[in-house]
Structure formats: C-alpha cells, structure tokens
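To the wet lab folks,

You asked to see what we're planning to order before we commit. Fair enough. Below is the target structure as tokens, and below that is the sequence we designed to fit it. If anything looks off to you, flag it before the synthesis order goes out.
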C-alpha cells in the first residue's frame, strides 16, 4: 500500500490538486477551441443529426461555455460557478449525445462513464475549491492527529 507521510501529502494537496484542476479545465477549454478550429459547421451538422434545433447558434453557445468555463477552471478563477456550469453542460451532453435519447445517438456506456467521472471531478472542485495552497482540509472526527487524513488503526 502506498503511504505518504505528512509533507508528501501536503505537497500532493498543493501541487496535485492544482494540476488536477488545470487538467479538467484544459479538457473543456481545448474541446471548445477544437470546435472552432475544426469548423463549427461540422459540429452544427452533428447537432442537427441529433435533432437539436438552432444547431448553428447552439454551437457558439457550446464553444463559449467550454472556453470560458474551462478556462476559468484551468486558471482557478470562479471555480465553483464554472464547475457548476460544466456539470450542467456535461450532464446534458451525456443525456443527449450518449444515452440513446436521440434517434441518431447510440447508447455509449464508455462515454457515459467517462462523463460521470468528469462530473465527479467537477463536484470535487465545487466542494474543495481551486486547490493548491488555498485548500484547507479540515480535520474530521476520524482525524485525531490533525493531518487531514483519517487515522488508521
């Protein structure tokens, strides 16, 4: 079993949480940039096949959400709000694009599970904030020595 000592856990909490947050934000940010670089009309055509109305306009809303909210998460600004927006977006994208709710979108369990994991990461960001040295892990009832981790007997 991998056991970290207190300084290692502190380092992981500082640098690891910051890197994790940046990677989640980067995922959305680059996806939005990719839509623009790949041709928004391609995404609009895909939206149309899913039966989504005003697909040409909706593409730009998706780009804005992904770039702005993803960028905010990536740099650690307004992380709670940006995470909430991305949770809503990811949930809708999962239902519409992967859960077989559309005639053209097949049920894709792998994509659904991936999106649920992303939602889990975003929920964690909402609960604990941007990470890094700003994050305070309060002792729990199981944490008698105050190191932020439950004590193991």
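Sequence we intend to order:
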């Amino acid at each position: 079993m991998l056991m970290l000592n207190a300084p290692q856990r502190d380092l992981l909490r500082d640098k690891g949480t910051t890197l994790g947050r940046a990677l989640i934000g980067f995922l959305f940010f680059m996806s939005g940039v990719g839509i623009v670089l790949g041709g928004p009309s391609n995404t609009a055509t895909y939206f149309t096949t899913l039966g989504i109305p005003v697909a040409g306009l909706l593409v730009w809303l998706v780009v804005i959400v992904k770039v702005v909210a993803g960028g905010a998460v990536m740099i650690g600004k307004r992380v709670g709000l940006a995470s909430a927006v991305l949770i809503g977006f990811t949930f809708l994208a999962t239902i519409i694009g992967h859960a077989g709710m559309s005639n053209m979108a097949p049920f894709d369990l792998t994509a659904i599970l991936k999106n649920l994991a992303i939602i889990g990461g975003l929920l964690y960001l909402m609960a604990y904030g941007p990470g890094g040295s700003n994050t305070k892990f309060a002792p729990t009832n199981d944490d008698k020595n105050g190191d932020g981790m439950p004590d193991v007997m």
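Structural context that might help your review: The chain has a mean pLDDT of 85. The CA atoms of residues 44 and 95 lie 18 Å apart.

Thanks,
Computational group
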